Sequence to fold (121 residues):
Amino acid sequence: PPSSKIKLQVADELSANFRKEKAKVLDLCCGVGFSTRALIKAFPDAEQIVGVDTSPEMLAMAKFITAHVSHLGPWYERLAQSYKTMRSSAAGFCPMDMNFKQGNAEHTSFNDGSFDVVTIM
Fold:
């Protein structure tokens, strides 16, 4: 989806403009985790990446997709050779572990200064 491409571009820009080893990244209003997975791709050496959303259903889907992305990789690679559109629609996936938490962007349970980068995409 086009919004996934935009999230990847934003995450890449953040990474290019904010270079810190072992960064701690917070992704508010993460939904099903496309933006959070884009941040993992953009910050591969991050110490911590956390996605926060108010919806338990969205977080359940984010966790499910993230847990199964590594299984989709080989299947995706074979299909991508024949279908270039698959490559662009699957670009938001990243086979890495991350943390998803339920919470409100206006009032998180994190202490001030806990993160180096905070996003809402």
